[in-house]
Design goal:
GO cellular component, one term: plasma membrane
Keywords: Antibiotic resistance, ATP-binding, Cell membrane, Lipoprotein, Membrane, Nucleotide-binding, Transmembrane, Transmembrane helix, Transport
Radius of gyration: 18 Å
CATH architecture: 3-Layer(aba) Sandwich
Bound molecules: adenosine-5'-triphosphate
Number of strands: 10
Strand content: 25-35%
GO molecular function, one term: ATP hydrolysis activity
Distance between the termini: 25 Å
Oligomer: single chain
Pfam families: ABC_tran (PF00005)
Number of domains: 1
Largest sheet: 6 strands, mixed
Protein name: Lipoprotein-releasing system ATP-binding protein
Structural class: alpha/beta
Shape: globular
CATH superfamily: P-loop containing nucleotide triphosphate hydrolases
Strand order of the largest sheet: 6-7-8-3-9-10
């Protein structure tokens, strides 16, 4: 089976004044199915830039980027959008829920975008996902009336709606108190073990990184270390 992620020689430059600034200098990285990896590094090292490329939200300046066996550099925009929607889930520091929608409606959103109109199967899937994140009794609550931790649980359920091969999480617990952060992290881990979903998690929190299977460290746009984490 293909790796869920296979990057070779990924470079990214941004225009700057008359020239360009190089942010990623040739990233080689593979992630296997079911891996639970942390991406760490100082501020400005290129973590978000790399996550945006892997999430197909932006295009590399050079290099090969394969998601779940599909090479993306030659794909047209419509195919990129489809690939992103179907294979990748996103969890951000700020949950980005639609506050007037219920928890259930928020979880249904990716399914609606993919299939066009709501149906019973979609509701059933969203209900099952909410139960999986411990919110079966909050399905009909507007997102705005949920606590920060509950909102992040809804965001995780939403990220899983399409059964993605890979979930990209950018500081998923950055906005939460320590206790809630631990709960949310445990939930990500549980999903990883239960569903076999791969995770790549950007975090500044060494405590959380220490609980991942693998720690990838970026400094100045280069991977300076990539190690399994035997402590976990
Ligand atoms: N759109 C852009 N245009 C120009 N430069 C950019 C752009 N986006 C990012 N950069 C630069 O790329 C570098 C890496 O930024 P990036 O946000 O990827 O770092 P990061 O490791 O995620 O940082 P943080 O931990 O603070 O979020 C920084 O020097 C930043 O200024």
């Amino acid at each position: 089976m293909a790796d869920v992620l296979d990057l070779q020689g990924i470079r990214k430059s941004y225009p700057s004044g008359a020239g360009e600034i190089d942010v990623l200098h040739g990233i080689d990285l593979r992630l296997q199915r079911g891996e639970f990896a942390a991406l760490i590094g100082p501020s400005g090292s290129g973590k978000s830039t790399l996550l945006n490329l892997i999430g197909l939200l932006d295009r590399p300046s050079a290099g090969r980027l394969c998601i779940d066996g599909d090479e993306t550099s030659t794909l047209p925009e419509a195919a990129i959008t489809r690939l992103r929607g179907q294979r990748i889930g996103f969890v951000f520091q700020h949950h980005l829920l639609i506050s007037a929608f219920t928890a259930l409606e928020n979880v249904m959103m990716p399914l609606l975008v993919d299939r066009g109109r709501p149906d019973a199967a979609m509701r059933a899937r969203a209900t099952e996902l909410l139960a999986g994140v411990g919110l079966a009794d909050r399905a009909e609550h507007p997102a705005s009336k949920l606590s920060g931790g509950q909102q992040q649980r809804v965001a995780i359920a939403r990220a899983l709606a399409m059964r993605p091969a890979l979930v990209l999480a950018d500081e998923p617990t950055g906005n939460l108190d320590t206790h809630t952060a631990d709960d949310i992290f445990a939930l990500l881990r549980e999903v990883n073990r239960r569903e076999g979903t791969s995770f790549l998690i950007v975090t500044h929190d060494p405590r959380l990184a220490a609980r991942c299977d693998r720690i990838i460290e970026l400094v100045d746009g280069r991977i300076v270390s990539d190690r399994p984490n035997p402590a976990d």
